[in-house]
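Notes, p. 3: input format for complexes.
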Amino acid sequence: MSESTVLNDAAKVKMTARDVKVFYGTNQAIHGIDMDIMENEVIAFIGPSGCGKSTFLRCLNRMNDTIDICRVTGQIALDGQDIYHPSLDVVQLRAQVGMVFQKPNPFPKSIYDNIAYGPKLHGLASKKSDLDDVVESSLRRAGLWEEVKDRLNQPGTGLSGGQQQRLCIARTIAVSPEVILMDEPCSALDPIATSIIEELIAELKQNFTIVIVTHNMQQAARVSDRTAFFHLGNLIELGVTNDVFTNPTQKRTEDYITGRYG
Ligand SMILES: Nc1ncnc2c1ncn2[C@@H]1O[C@H](COP(=O)(O)OP(=O)(O)OP(=O)(O)O)[C@@H](O)[C@H]1O
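Output follows (262 residues plus adenosine-5'-triphosphate):
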């Protein structure tokens, strides 16, 4: 399958990274990465532990700003706008480029308030009825509404792990992001909860661009359109997922996917 088969001709670049380098103090974790992320694609980041997948992912919504010793150089743009520009509103950026973490992390609040928090913060719903609509539509899009509609006032932390992760996805959706970053979103979940999230990713792709870090190569193969293989802080190969897994162009990719290391 050629790249253009999966990414049709109308595919639009959503985010670009150019010569991105990341340093933790004097230790360089990312060595000059260039990447285009296309609108409405699911792109998976794979590679051995410590290769920089999460570090690079966190560059895409400036989550690394929260780590004191971390320094990012190079350019990253969202719809052509430099996300590291000094005048950029980082809170707004993180609404546009939302993030779902490895371990579900609902706020210690009700299910309703977990979802309503972001829209209230960003002034997206002024009336209670508008907020109710956002809460319902976000929970529906995250495939959780039917399971929680009768207990919206109960704590989010009382849900199962898989439900909590869908709650976190709903919370991300509630502020109308364009890109959703997922850092090993299923690693704390059982196989059934994992397959529910994987199905959800396929649906979310219609409305959002999704970047997912995963240790699980089968998962990357199942959910993503394109796969990026990282090694020692470098992007070794980026291509259509099927090609990367069946016919990699780089020896290091082949060694990794055939289990020779990692
Ligand atoms: N907060 C931090 N402080 C210092 N060094 C860090 C920090 N986070 C990551 N690193 C270092 O940066 C490098 C890349 O780590 P990163 O977590 O991005 O890799 P990864 O591919 O996501 O790994 P894993 O699959 O194990 O999560 C590693 O050498 C790691 O030790």
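Strands lie at 13-24, 27-38, 42-46, 70-78, 81-82, 97-100, 179-183, 209-213, 226-231, 234-240.
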